[in-house]
Prior knowledge:
The structure is a single chain. The protein is an alpha/beta fold. Helices cover 40% and strands 17% of the residues. It is built from 16 helices and 16 strands.
Amino acid sequence: MRVLFISAADEAGAMTPLPLGAACVVAATEKAGHEVQLLALPSKAESEGRIRETIEQLRPEVIGVSVRNIDDQNMNSPQFLLAHIKNVVTVCRDISPAPIVLGGAGYSIFPESALAYLGADMGVQGEGEVAFPALLSWIERRKQGPAPPAVYLPAKLPTPRAFAASLDALPLPEPHLWLQTGAAATRIPVQSRRGGPLDCTYCSTSLIEGRPVRRRSPAAVVRWLTELGQCGFRELYFVDNTFNVPPPYAKDLCRKLIAAGLGLDWWAIVYPKWVDPDLVELMAKAGCTQVGLGFESGSEPVLQQLNKRFDCAEVTTIATMFRNAGIKRHGFLLLGAPGETRDSVEESLAFADGLYLDALKVTVGLRIYPQTPLARMAVAEGLISPDDNLLFPRFYLTPALRDWLPARVAERDSQQQTSE
């Protein structure tokens, strides 16, 4: 079958991410014998013309649309990103009779409500490397028999999800795909693990990737990075939610990167626990130049409310180790969680200042995602109702701080800009 994948720019952050998830599904679909094209739209302004041109040339029999983000998680002025995706679906519908299939991280959190809002024909929840080619076969059979796993259809019960036990069974995108998307000057996303086992109060990762950690063998990751390096891609970022978990795997991967001598420059997200000097040294030697530290709070009671496994002393020790190794540290504070007070906010801000980070992002309010402990807390406190459609952004902010906290963070930002 002729298949068009569309990854639409959502402009949700400072870095426009390359569509790794869509690219992996493209690789699996090509491997299954289908003719595939990936259209990565760089901006909203260019969308309609590029879509029309590509559909007229390819005449796809199925169109896949990737939904990466639902909104920008900004409580003060939330930007709902699905309106643009809805326009993409509408344009496709206007010029092609091909069925439209949704997928992606954002879609997987809200499979039913996103399908209804966007008006597509069906959706695939979770990883699509196995599910999407199976869906194409089902469509080729004129939808005879039950739908494949992880498929959502309007007004029908979804089929059960299935996860690959080992990521080595799933193909990785060929380097030429990034060249086609104009990625030469962009950091290439790399994923060596999937899964969200740490059960943070607000986290949606397990809805997308499942809870158990599943991994690619370090040798397979290094082979792929070698191929990327041969095409000139040497700046990467690992999108694994926790690069250092489990620690033995992280160390093995770093040792193999060092042995390969690829001369890479890469970033990673580190959970501020289970980090020792050996791991930091290996990461530095392997080419790591920046880590994201999502410590979220500098208050021990708030960390407990968020179900974090670390304490402030561990964060300080780990941040210092990375600084001493010459690795830049980008920190993240998440203020307004259950149990937050004015004192805990001031404690967190002072704690972050004491880490002497290279950059710090402060977020006010926690995006409420379905099936999370935070959603249950919000219902229990009367902040949302059990029937609220959380596809449309709702945030948790301790009621006593609703007026004070945004003003306090704005004041701090103003003071820092003045001092610079």
